[in-house]
Amino acid sequence: MSSETMVKIENLSVTINGKTVLRNINLEVPKNTIFAIMGPSGSGKSTLLRAINKLWDLYPQVKVTGKIYVNGTDVNKMPPHELRKIVGMVFQRPNPFPHMSIFDNVAIGLRLHKLVKSKEELRERVEWALKKAYLWDEVKDDLKKKAHALSGGQQQRLCIARAIALKPKVLLMDEPTSALDVVSTKKIEENIVELKKDFTIIIVTHNPQQAARISDYVAFIYNGELVEVGPTSEIFTRPKNPLTEKYVLGKV
Ligand SMILES: Nc1ncnc2c1ncn2[C@@H]1O[C@H](COP(=O)(O)OP(=O)(O)OP(=O)(O)O)[C@@H](O)[C@H]1O
Fold it and tell me: How far is the CA of 21 from the centre of ligand 1 (A)?
């Protein structure tokens, strides 16, 4: 594996209740890039993302085969709490802990993983994460406010802050803007582009325009199979597979 690769997926297949939903997927995600996984509804995008941080382990009806390496280590050889430290996740709907304060939402992972040594360091890290998530200016005078009092877009930025507070290597984002309006979507897209300086980002989207706007690489998944993968500019201007061309033109 190249030292420039952050995530490598080899021959990944997933079956759920005996039905194959992902077949023989091979991908390499370079460090400090935004890597989009796009495809129509039900094509297996979320299933792939969930396999990377082993969310399927708790489901006996789901069988995952193949190998996934993060930063050179096989995820199956990492205890779940170690994997959670290096792989953060942001979900489709903002899911902060609603009755916890803004500060505590960001601090919780740092406290659980004992990643900071003092209250001062905790405060600094929370501020750092909120700034990185473009939320600090809006909440800095009100860190004790409960998370449910924030708007949907602010809640999603809080979830981004919560995920990046641990300084993971990889940030998985499952359609992070699909529940948001155009203005919040734009803010979060700008934020994601900034975040790639510090993290490797894998983002699932069913919106080809979003992949075109923000990603460096795109994998197009259709019916559980990888149809095409490559630099975003090539996939959108010179797709090799006619199915990719149809999809990016909105004809699938
Ligand atoms: N928990 C589950 N139990 C049963 N089947 C599931 C489960 N999760 C996913 N599937 C099936 O796996 C297939 C792929 O689903 P997945 O959610 O990965 O697709 P997707 O591309 O992310 O779709 P969407 O854009 O609609 O979120 C679908 O056929 C879906 O019905």
Answer: 8
